[in-house]
Write a structure and sequence with these properties.
Elements lengths: L9 H14 L22 E5 L3 H4 L4 H9 L4 E5 H7 L17
Antiparallel strand pairs: 1-2
Amino acid sequence: MMWLPANVSPWEWEQVRARVIAAAQACAICGRELFPDAPPRSRWSTSVDHKVPRAVFAGMDLQTQRQLTLDPQNLQAVHARCNSRKGKRSMRQSVPRPQSQKW
């Protein structure tokens, strides 16, 4: 479970998260297909990323934290691996790395 502001319930987060994932077909970071049925700990499992990172708004007032946490415009469906690579950076700071298909 991710960190949530004190005024956001886990139920509220799960509802918004489910809507964001259901509406997406491709990872917002790498553009590849999402696999909602991938195992939860898989690098290809579907995750929800905050465009404005939570680390940025963690020090803000609770109402602003709530708004940014639950705002679908601040959320995007991504692969867990892509979200991990992006880390605490905003989308502008994060540039996807080209990946070779030759192994």
